[in-house]
Write a structure and sequence with these properties.
Endonuclease III, domain 1, globular
């Protein structure tokens, strides 16, 4: 018997694997949180499958998403990234990744960890929605609006409410698997 999945991931093995193993699973690892923050900001205006297909290239290009290293990137390194055809070559997004890494570490200093900061927006407990169809799922919420506003105030870029809601879904702050999906009760 075939597993029932959220319809958005059907038909692509990479998408299905991401859906089955990662999407919506509560995540608390600092480096992985930074990875998803970077990937979601690069995804702005593009499809998620495009980003997934380039994910390993992003890992190589951005030092395995080590935010301590990314925060120190100089103009030479940023220029090298702009020449890297394996990733999304967007100067504004590359520059924002470096400044976002610096701001990520400022949040760590202020709150003890980025994890503590971000999960406090949902009182450290995932929001569990009950969607029957993926098309019913929201693109933004009051919480993603607040996160976006607060991050922008702290100097982050490419962190609009829609990007932040996708980030919340990816790291499990919200469970938006449809109720008939086999992952709904697992996460």
């Amino acid at each position: 018997m075939q597993k029932q999945r959220c319809e958005w991931c059907l038909g692509d093995p990479l998408y299905e694997a991401y859906h089955d193993k990662e999407w919506g699973v509560p995540l608390h690892d600092e480096q992985l949180l930074f990875e998803f923050l970077v990937l979601e900001t690069f995804q702005a205006g593009l499809s998620w499958i495009t980003i997934l297909r380039k994910r390993e290239h992003f890992r190589l290009a951005f030092d395995n998403f080590d935010y301590r290293l990314v925060a120190q990137y100089n103009e030479q390194k940023k220029e090298a990234l702009l020449q890297n055809k394996a990733i999304i070559r967007n100067k504004l997004k590359i520059n924002s990744t470096v400044s976002n890494a610096q701001n990520f570490m400022k949040i760590q200093q202020e709150f003890g960890s980025f994890d503590s900061y971000i999960w406090d927006f949902v009182q450290n407990k995932p929001i569990v929605n009950r969607w029957k169809h993926h098309k019913d799922c929201l693109a933004t919420t009051e919480i993603s609006n607040r996160i976006s506003k607060d991050l922008k105030k702290r100097g982050f870029k490419f962190v609009g409410p829609t990007v932040m809601y996708a980030f919340m879904q990816a790291i499990g702050m919200v469970n938006d698997h449809t109720v008939d999906c086999f992952r709904y009760t697992q996460v």
